[in-house]
Amino acid sequence: MNTFDLIPDLKVGHIVEVSGTSIRVELSGDVTELTRTYEGRVYPIGQIGSIVKVHFGRRLVFGFVTLLRMRSEELLETTKPIPPDADQRLMEVELFAEGVWNAAEQKLRFVRGVTTYPLPRQSVHLLTREETTQIYSAAEGQNNDGDYSPLVPFAHYVGADNAVCRANVDKMLGMHCAVLGSTGSGKSGAVAALLHSMLEHIPEPETVCHPRIIVIDPHGEYGQAFKDRAIVYRAYDPLGNEETTGSPISLPYWLMSADEFRTLVIGKTEQEATSQNNIVYKAITYARMVAANLVNPSPTAHGGAAPADGLDHDVPRPKEGVTFEQLIEFDHDKPRPFSLQEFYNHIFYLQAARVQGGSLQSVTASDFANKFKSILDKLSVFKRDPRIRFMMQEWNDESPSLEHIIAQLVGQIQGEGGVDQDIRILDISGLPNEVAGPLTAMLARLLFQYKIYQTTDERKRDPVVLVCEEAHRYVPDRGEAEYAAAQTAIRRIAREGRKYGIGLMLVSQRPADVESTVISQCGTWLVLRLTNAADQQHVSRFLPDGLSGMTKALPNLAQQEAIFVGEGASMPARVRIRDLAQNQLPKSETAKFAKGWILDRLTEHEIAEIANRMAGN
Questions:
Q1: Which of 236, 321, 434, 564 could covalently link to 387 via disulfide, CB atoms 3.0 to 4.6 Å apart?
Q2: Domain 164-238+400-586+593-598 belongs to what topology?
Q3: Which Pfam families does the entry link to (predicted)?
Q4: 176 has pLDDT over 50
């Protein structure tokens, strides 16, 4: 029997209704079991997510099974009387593609979408394993039209005789992607499998793939998964033991835009008055101008002579040889270095000053307390906080340059044996939310600006992917002040990143909590088991290909199973993520309570050691 022939033994029913791309099929009376046997193989009938076909001579239409129900249930829902013979079984199918089988070339011409719709009474058939494999390989072939292969194998199609599933990384990352799944569904393992597959991929014969991938890791779990091929930057290490140490990273405060720095030093609990915002903006602009040698430094004591040029005493005045036009054109948001001490001096000795008798004197204590004190107090708290020392070290002439900071993230770094460390993992476990938000914003905006200032040729040679693990933490679907800057930065990458060669991979266990604007920009979805009804409903709103019905299968997916849909998928499918060796998996083990409870309790001496670490002794 030839592939895609009409096989009477695999007929399961006939169409009773066609509504757009959705059809309803009445199962034949001889379908009494969940399976059908053909040529020694057993084929399941009506499994959610399985593929069926409708014949039009040589043309075929393919659809996914999305729902099974009894006719009596449908009548019950519409409050119609149920006749005694209403025991038909109905199968709902979502049409997604059509094709023509060329028997001479043994090749399927596959086209996404449906142009020819079937008619009621036409028969519906199951696919053989060979036919299912042909569909997937034809779809992947159609998805690859370049002189190199962007198709990266990372999973197997469920129910297709273990056919390999390959993602088109050009489309998947160029149009952004989301990896979603409840805790314990294998989400981190799926991300690791995708990244390992990208590292192992050979786009052209005798070439090596060197991806530029930056992972924001809030739990410190990805470092052990990539060992030789990744460098782990650890922002804060409260323990200082071998398991948690990473390379130090330089992400200084001056990389922040004025708005990000304002978010950090004013914070969500302080009075966010316009006057306080202006205080920060003025001080940052002035401090950056001082570092750029455009203006003289602020005074370092009260009592100096007040300016006599009629302008406010705290406005920038050009140094000799500098024009006012240069100051007006100065952009305070560009990543230019500035001194925290200068920032402090401008607020304390200029903005918090008043003109008295021709000299600058301090404002009254009550004015200082109302307007300036909280900003300077917050700044001093951050300077003393060991968790963010990597950000708040005072800038000087020996501080790392912008070039060095960007090279940490996307430049070539080789480890032992000359192996390229292509993945850069920023471990931010232990950082407070009020810092994690601005830090993520700073990193996302820095990457975006870096891409904007590249030439077209440079962008072609340097595509970058930003992986946001626990994305609901940085771009939540709510408007808290500490996340505002991160939301703005990541939203911009989501909207415009593909034009500049920067892709986004959002990873979350709570898709309903991720900002809708960002998650709706994702063109590819890898959705593992989701047990929360709100999350399932949220995913169904954004799921491409008109396949929101597939979300019905999400609560029952097995470990490592996922629904793979969108631009990067050759066609919507249920897949099983590839297995990884233990040393390739992220460190995300669930605590073993029963095992732990049979072990000896910690002694008082061990508890004392932990307490000392907590207290910083």
A1: 236
A2: Rossmann fold (3.40.50)
A3: DUF87
A4: yes
